[in-house]
Amino acid sequence: MEKAAQNGHLDVVQWLYANCGEGIKSDAAEFAASGGHLEILEWLHSKQGATCAESGVELAAENGHLEVLKWLSERASQEFNSSVMDSAARNGHLSAVQWLHENREEGCTTAAMDGAAGNGHVAVVEWLLNNRKEGCTTKAMDKASAKGHLDVVKFLHTNRSEGCTTSAMDQAIYGGHVDVAQWLKHNRTEGWSEYTPENAMERVASDGHLECSSGFSPICQMENTPPN
Fold first, then answer.
1. Number of domain units in the chain
2. pLDDT of residue 220
3. In the list 32, 45, 94, 97, which could disulfide-bond 37, CB 3.0-4.6 Å?
């Protein structure tokens, strides 16, 4: 029943309920919410008042199922927590973030902006900056650097004060993101960790980024000092 609910097969869910004598599975609603299948959620709720655990709400937010979130909030009296907005922000679902902001009181944590930054969702990062007060941590720029999101790195550098750690440069190099590594070297003061210059080229090659070696070579030859 859980798989049928997750994949949106209401007829299968109904058949299993009618013919297998197993009742409503406790996590069927969670799977339906994760998959965004509102019709199944409504049917499950009508039979046994079934709702989903908080993890199901988080999965609905993570996957951007705004109509499911609205129904869980307004019709099923489902409990929410701050992880719901965090999840929506992390995966770039701005409309869900905005609805939660306007209609729920749980808010979010710094994980919202950190996660959105790490996945390159600069529009969500900007909206959170302008509309929420939680801010972010150094993880935001570190994660954006690790995944090569230079636009996000620049935005955070200009608009936030948390900065980054040496992990930003380390992971930009290891991820093959030449443009990010070069920008960090010339615009940030954190530098890299002590082992990076010696191991960077070997790591770049072992990770299959040989095409980036010419770009990283001058970076790795620079002294680990703040920019001029």
1. 1
2. 58
3. 32
